[in-house]
Amino acid sequence: MPRILKSLTLATFLIITSLLLPPALADELFDTEFNVVYNIAPTGEASIVQNIKITNKQDDVVATNYSLTIKDMNIYDAAGTDDEGELKLETSKDVNTTTLKTEFNEQVIGADRSYEWQLKYKSGDIATKVGEVWNVHIPQVEVLDLTKDYNVTLVVPKEFGPEIFISPLPTKATDEGASITYFFDKKTLAEKGITASFGNFQTLNFQLKYNLSNESAFTSYQEIALPPDITNTQQVLYKSLEPKPYSFHTDDDGNLIATYKLGGHDEVEVILTGSARIAGKQINPFFGGSLSEIPGELKRKYTGAEKYWEVDAPMIKDLASSLKDTGLTTSQNAQRVYEYVTQNLKYDFDIVNKSFVDRNGALNALTNPGPWACMEFTDSFIAITRAMGIPARELNGYAFAQESNLTPLSINLKGGDLLHSWAEFYDPNFGWVQVDPTWGNTSGIDYFTKLDTNHFVFSIKGTSSEYPFPAGAYKVTGNEKQVEVDFAQNPEEINFNENIKVYEEANPSLILKLLSRFRELKTYTIYNQDGIKLYNLNRKRQILQPFSTATVQLPKDSNELYFEDFTGKGKVLSFAVSQGEPPETPKPVFSLFGVAALALLLCTMIYWLAIHPEALKKVSRRLPHRPQAQGQ
Questions:
Q1: Domain co-membership, 332 together with 449
Q2: 221 and 161 in a common domain
Q3: Cα–Cα distance, 125 to 156 (Å, whole number)
Q4: Which of 178, 234, 422, 484 is the residue whose CA sits 20 to 30 A from 254?
Q5: Which of 172, 162, 72, 161 has its CA nearest to residue 125?
Q6: Do 314 and 423 share a structural domain?
Q7: Helices of type H across 272-392
Q8: pLDDT at 631
Q9: Is position 391 within any domain?
């Protein structure tokens, strides 16, 4: 007499198996095959069809029903059918789960006997629109290894916009006219869910406050880090900055640093408003550059030990050595570090409720797996990667998190400002690549080969693990909220273009006058009153910061100015000369301190030569002399 299995539960995506029949036993008694189609409408509603086939492996086993449990997803309009027609379907819901129980219309009796049926349902949780970007998330199949075959077809409407990224890479993609169809097989889906983003870029509006205080009786100079441009990833439009700073400069990590001059016992509140465009970037680690191709300058700057990045600790050096494989690319080695951190550290989901979170560093986190905050995940990735000889840095900023359990934020500042920390490493073929090991751990989603468009960088820490501070960390007293970031409601109205005025220089320096005379040039002052940063201004490798001026020389008959945007794309701007004088603007640090230093050096040399006249004679004798013409 055959054994009747009253509940055959075959696990699919995000299934929690509280089963009468354990998955391992189901695998022993039946072969299971899935062909699942996710068809997403332009509204974001997903119609899901599961075509399921089971094949009996034994003669004395009978399957009579099927139970599917889905977690953290609202489903509706569920129905089941087979060749004989509609299946009896029972639906039950708990707080976080929905269970569909199907009674079979026929019994699967005997070895090699097969039974096929179909489940259909809908969900609004597969595709969600965040700002201007559509995100698609199909969770990981938790017991994929217990199925004989598992194939997924994802149909996405072209109305979502161009593909920003999709992970894992599909086995095939086809253009179906109004939609793009992606195909995935069991091997592709191994230990991964499907994540994808569609759109051009994310546009954000922001207002950031920085409170500065000088407690001494003497004048002090204090710096703040403004959100930087990041090549091909993040472009910032600076609309207003009040009050204007004393000076601007870009530090070694690429941060835009504004310096303020504070008098004795003075306090200043700085308010920056603007917008940002965040673009996605996806890499294939297999095509990364080799470890030997990493530039020596970057290795010197970004592979050393810092506080919280204990690169020289024996435990971290040994761990890096065990993970490193010189036969792999730089990105593949960094991916091994990412996987180690995401798999071995635990996240503290209660951390958001704590008023203060101490930073413990990589060594503490790797010695004790947790639970930890995002800082420890980031520090651990950076320390191990640096110990491998791969340049790595820390990024601090704002991240939009819709599901706190999957994408938590753990830098809790006064006033309710929640920031996030993630990392980036350098690959010779890809440049700087951003990764988020914290969210990779908490969500199970691949945050290594691509990062979503919801990460907004406030500051980059590379030459130091402690400085500069991100916006939101410049608080004096009180609990005022300093960070306001939101998706742009009318992004098409935001103009990410240059906004400059050009003035003819009335009193150029003596050197500029001489150059103008011999080369027929005119001297102009370019004022970037607000807007974007201009790079390689007039092809002189000069950066024109917002709210700043720069001096350029152009041919007398020319009214065109060359510059490059944050992607390196060259542009030519036609201009008309403005009347009047350019406004007073912050000066670059070099013009303030560099000139003073050069003047001091020159005075020192003159003084030294004055008290050592014999040295001047020696120098004079060694200088080359033009031979004089000899008379006939």
A1: yes
A2: no
A3: 14
A4: 484
A5: 72
A6: yes
A7: 296-302, 314-323, 330-344, 361-367, 374-387
A8: 35
A9: yes
Tokens encoding 510: 């003596």
Read off the tokens for 600.
Answer: 């001091």
| Domain membership flag for residue 606 | yes
- At 519, the pLDDT band (50, 70, 90 cuts) reads low
Beta bridge partners of 354: none
In a domain, 486, yes or no: no
Residue range of the domain that includes 230:
205-278
According to DSSP, the β-strands at 3-5 and 61-71 are: parallel
The distance from CA 63 to its chain's CA centroid, rounded to whole angstroms, is: 48
Token pair of 333, please? 């080695």
DSSP summary character for residue 560: E
In a domain, 227, yes or no: yes
* Partners of residue 319 on adjacent β-strands: none
- SS3 at position 476: coil
Give pLDDT tens digits for 348-403: 888 767 767 789 999 999 999 879 999 999 999 999 999 999 999 999 999 887 65
Mean pLDDT of 444-472: 92
Tell me how crowded residue 580 is: count the other CB atoms within 10 A of its CB: 7
Residue 167 in contact with residue 282, Cβ under 8 Å? Answer: yes
Distance from C-alpha of 195 to C-alpha of 368, rounded to nearest angstrom: 31
415 band by pLDDT with thresholds 50, 70 and 90: low
* 464 shares a domain with 410: yes
Q: Which residues pair with 345 in a beta bridge?
A: none
